[in-house]
Amino acid sequence: MATPSVQNNAARYGEENVFLFVPNLIGYTRVIFAVASLYYMPLHPRTCSLLYSFSCLLDALDGAAARRLGQSTRFGAVLDMITDRCTTTCLLVFLASAFPRWSIVFQGLISLDYSSHYVHMYATLAMGGNRQSHKQIDESRPWVLRTYYSNTKVLFTVCLLNELFFIALYLLSFSSPPPLANSPNFEAPQSTPSQSWSSPWSAGAMELARANKIDDSFPQFLLGVSSVFMIFKQYVNVVQLIEASKWLVRRGDLETRRNARLGKKRDQ
C-alpha cells in the first residue's frame, strides 16, 4: 500500500494510476471468474465451464481496450500472462487427477507452457529495450511466431480453441466411457460417495460423484474441433522456448562476454 508521501507526489506530478487502467480492471475481473470456476470445478462441470470460458473471453477484451485507450503497460502484460498460465495450469492439474494414466502428459504441458513463456518474456523485456513487448516479433524470428503474435485474430483463435480442448477433456471426465454407458446391462451407481468410501473427499468418492453427469457427445465434438489448434499451440510453445533461449545466449551471454573481453583488452 502506498504511503501518504508517495500518494502526494503522484498527485503533485499528475502521475497515472496504472493499477486502475481499464485493461487491468478487466484483468482483475478475469481472475475473479477464474477463481470462481475453480471453486465449482470438482463437481459442477457446467457452471465451471461457463465461468472459465468467460474468463478466457475477457482475455481478448483487455487487449482491445489497451490498444483502443492507449493503456498498454508492462504490468498489464505480466498480469495477462500470469492469469493465462495459472488458469490453464489449474485446469491441467485437475485433468491429471481425473486421467491419472495421462498425468505425465499434462505435467509435460504445464512445464512446456511455463518455461516457454517465461524464457520468452524474460528475453524480450530484459533485452528488448524500454518499448519492447513480448508480442513484438521482428522479421528475423520464425514465421510461426510472427504469425501467432502479429495477428490478433490468429492469437485469439488459437488460444481460445486451445483452452476449449482442455475444457472438452474436463467435461469428458464427468461422463463414463461410451461402451460402458451405452451397455444394456449398465446401471449407474446407486450408493452415495459417503457410503462407498470412508471420506467423501477421497479420490474415489469424487470420481463416483462425477460419474455420468455429462453426456459425452458434445465434449467429443469440442475435442475434435479444437485438437488441431491445441497441437499448433504446443508447437508454438516449443518454437518460442527454443528461439527465446537462442536470443538469451546471443544477446545476453555472448555479447556480454565479448564486451567484457574487449574491456579487459583496453585496460591492459
Rounded radius of gyration (Å): 23 Å
Low-confidence stretches: 191-197
Number of strands: 0
Tally of separate helices: 11
Mean pLDDT: 82
Envelope shape: globular
Could you state the order of secondary-structure elements as H and E? HHHHHHHHHHH
N- to C-terminal separation?
A: 50 Å
What does this structure look like?
With 268 residues, the chain is mainly alpha-helical. The protein contains eleven helices and no strands. It has helices at 4-12, 22-40, 45-69, 74-98, 103-127, 143-150, 152-172, 178-181, 193-196, 203-210, 217-267. Helix 2 (22-40) runs parallel beside helix 4 (74-98) and helix 6 crosses helix 7.
Distinctive features:
single chain, 268 residues, mainly alpha, globular
Blueprint (SSEs and pairs):
Layout lengths: L3 H9 L9 H19 L4 H25 L4 H25 L4 H25 L15 H8 L1 H21 L5 H4 L11 H4 L6 H8 L6 H51 L1
Helix pairs in contact: 2-3, 2-4, 3-7, 4-5, 4-7, 5-11, 6-7, 7-11
Summed up, what is this model?
The protein has 268 residues and is mostly helical. It has helices spanning 4-12, 22-40, 45-69, 74-98, 103-127, 143-150, 152-172, 178-181, 193-196, 203-210, 217-267.
